[in-house]
UniProtKB/TrEMBL annotation:
Binding site for Zn(2+): H265, H329
Biased composition regions of type Basic and acidic residues, renumbered to the chain: 442-452
Species this protein is from: Natronorubrum texcoconense
UniProt EC number: 4.1.99.17
Requisite cofactors: [4Fe-4S] cluster
Name of the featured protein: Phosphomethylpyrimidine synthase
Catalysis: reaction(s): 5-amino-1-(5-phospho-beta-D-ribosyl)imidazole + S-adenosyl-L-methionine = 4-amino-2-methyl-5-(phosphooxymethyl)pyrimidine + CO + 5'-deoxyadenosine + formate + L-methionine + 3 H(+)
Domain of life from the UniProt record: Archaea
Length: 496
């Protein structure tokens, strides 16, 4: 049996995956090894996923973003699912979770693994329920069979809802929104129907053995995450978190990598509390959060309400953010929703890295600001998080090529452009007075004059991690189908 990444790290070996991660993160390979060995970071890399370009998830590295995709009984086929995968990777997803519940799940999953340069995650409970015919018909034998099959297919990480226990169920009685996790509601229904303990908890050691054989990473599901602000940080959520801490340590004994999933809906003043508590309870295992949404009043804009919480979580130490699209709680997202959701979350992730002063993270911001000040429009577009969107918005009012050289945009026009006024003021006095400070000097000039501003940021020399430098979507996606013009449906985010 091949070594898992954490087993190799504990034995002092720097694997090829660790070397690649170190290159992408601009960190020393030995530092990567230490973080993996201590369980503070994970490299989801199933031994059967040959197309993978290894990446790392951990609070000491650049914040990552996950996108959920998948089919349903009434939508999508293999070609459309491959297109969804391409769309997610193109717009900057660091990992992709296939939450499909429709037809041809095996073929779609195998195709994703064959083509995806990013880690693929799944929730095996969904397939097990589909095969069983309903939650109450689930058996431990079927659960283990599905988990082992998906591991053999090359899935890099799986959400396992083993933390919700029978004794936790009554703690949800006073909630406003009950159990909102799809997997959590399924396991709760099973326990109520059978009067027994969570079967995933009961066979957890067997799952660890399967994961160790294929180097599958746990994503321990937060089955009791809050689905409304009123339910945040309640007894049910934190009781399950304590169990997830125990499960984390049990998996480590099997040399299996672990990350822990988090909420949900959390008011702003409690976001950091959630991250800090998870880090303490789970001994620093990477925290993977859905949002969190900081208000419940904005259906149709939940990519914004959640990105606010996501940025705060990233600053507090969350390692990966699961995107939310504008259609959250409302319907099945299409391609444009995925684009908007990923943009919002790439902004949140990058903002967290800037706030945490990750090496070179702000260089991208500085380079774009310098291009903006110098009216280098094409450079601005090229440095933008979504170059096509930035160019399209500019060209809606000033489409002609000559406006790519203009020293204004349509918001202020020529006369009131502040940057044009500032540049002209600086240029008009340049070298015109005796006794003027030399160009580039830090010494102030007499009479309140201003020095000329220079562009100094060199992104080529930046120490920033790959995801904190343009362009977004840097994975090799040649093996994926091209993104077309018509919209396609993408599985509802957030129900893992």
């Amino acid at each position: 049996m091949a070594q898992t990444q954490i087993q190799a790290a504990r034995e002092g070996t720097v694997t090829d995956a660790m070397k690649r991660v170190a290159e992408r993160e601009n960190r020393e390979p030995e530092f990567v090894r230490e973080q993996v060995a201590e369980g503070q970071a994970v490299i989801p890399a199933n031994v059967n996923h040959d197309a993978l370009d290894p990446m790392i998830i951990g609070r000491e590295f650049a914040t990552k973003v996950n996108a959920n995709i998948g089919n349903s009984e009434t939508t999508s086929d293999l070609e459309e699912e491959l297109r969804k995968l391409h769309t997610a990777v193109h717009y900057g997803a660091d990992t992709v979770m296939d939450l499909g519940t429709g037809s041809d799940l095996d073929e779609i999953r195998e195709t994703h693994v064959d083509h995806s340069p990013v880690p693929i995650g799944t929730v095996p409970l969904y397939e097990a329920v589909k095969r069983a015919g309903g939650p109450e018909e689930l058996t431990t034998e079927l659960l283990l069979e599905v988990i082992e099959k998906q591991a053999e297919q090359g899935v890099d990480y799986m959400t396992i809802h083993a933390g919700i226990l029978a004794e936790h169920l009554s703690l949800t009685d006073g909630r406003k929104t009950g159990i909102v996790s799809r997997g959590g509601s399924i396991m709760a229904s099973w326990m109520v129907s059978h009067g027994e303990q969570n079967p995933l908890f009961q066979v957890y050691d067997e799952i660890c053995e399967i994961f160790a054989e294929h180097d599958v990473t746990f994503s321990l599901g937060d089955s009791l995450r809050p689905g409304s602000l009123a339910d945040a940080c309640d007894e049910a959520q934190y009781a399950e978190l304590d169990t997830l801490g125990e499960l984390t340590r049990r998996a480590w004994k099997y040399n299996v990598q672990v990350m822990v999933e988090g909420p949900g809906h959390v008011p702003m003043h409690k976001v950091a509390e959630n991250v800090e508590r998870q880090q303490e309870v789970c001994d620093g295992a990477p925290f993977y959060v859905l949002g969190p949404l900081v208000t419940d009043i904005a259906p149709g804009y939940d990519h914004i309400t959640s990105a606010i919480g996501a940025a705060m979580a990233a600053e507090a130490g969350a390692a990966m953010l699961c995107y939310v699209t504008p259609k959250e709680h409302l319907g099945l997202p299409d391609e444009e929703d995925v684009r908007d959701g990923l943009a919002a979350y790439r902004i949140a992730a990058h903002s967290g890295d800037v706030a945490n002063e990750r090496p070179g993270a702000r260089d991208w911001d500085d380079a774009l600001s310098e291009a903006r000040y110098n009216f280098e429009w094409r450079e601005q577009f090229g440095l933008a998080l979504d170059p096509d969107r930035a160019r399209d918005y500019h060209d809606q009012t000033l489409p002609e090529d000559n406006y790519k050289e203009a020293r204004f945009c349509s918001m202020c026009g020529v006369e009131f452009c502040s940057m044009r006024i500032d540049r002209d003021a600086r240029e008009s006095r340049r070298g015109s007075r005796s006794g003027q400070s030399p160009e580039g000097s830090d010494q102030p000039r007499e009479g309140g004059e201003m020095n000329r501003l220079e562009s100094t940021t060199d992104l080529e020399a930046s120490p920033a991690a790959e995801v904190n430098r343009p362009p977004v979507g840097t994975h090799d996606s040649d093996a994926l189908s091209a993104v077309g013009d018509d919209s396609q449906s993408v599985e509802q985010a957030g129900d893992d």
